[in-house]
Amino acid sequence: MTVSNQEIQACLRRLVEERGPAKSICPSEVARALKSNDWRSLMPQVRAVGTTLAKAGEIVVTQKGTVIDPAASKGPIRYRLPGNQ
Fold first, then answer.
1. Number of CB atoms found within 10 A of residue 27's CB
2. Which of 43, 58, 61, 67 qualifies as a FRET site for 21, CA 20 to 30 Å off?
3. Which tens digits make up the pLDDT trace of 4-35?
4. Residue 85 lies in a domain
């Protein structure tokens, strides 16, 4: 099953909205929601879509609680709504 970028965007947006202000989600939550059996193969695409949404200002990417530039990230990251500390 192929997952489109639009499906990933919609799922990511829904999950961060459901999580609420000041709380974050892991990119793997998006991948697992869309492709539960083979979610790991979807991770590069989820991270790429997350970077696009972050650059558009729709979400922020954090690492160890600090907002980071997603293009320069290495290691575990999280997504949350902007403007929340």
1. 24
2. 43
3. 999 999 999 999 999 988 899 999 999 999 99
4. no
Would you say 49 and 11 are in contact if contact means Cβ atoms under 8 Å apart?
Answer: no
Kindly list the distances between the CA atom of residue 24 and the CA atoms of 1, 2, 29, 81, 85, in Å, as whole numbers in the listed order.
27, 26, 11, 8, 10
d(CA 29, CA 12): 9
Give me the number of domains the chain comprises.
1
pTM of the predicted protein model: 0.91
Do 27 and 53 form a contact (C-beta atoms < 8 A)?
A: no
For residue 21, the SS3 value is coil
Residue numbers of the domain that contains 53: 5-80
Rounded distance between C-alpha atoms, residue 8 and residue 75, angstroms: 20
Tell me whether residue 23 is in a domain: yes
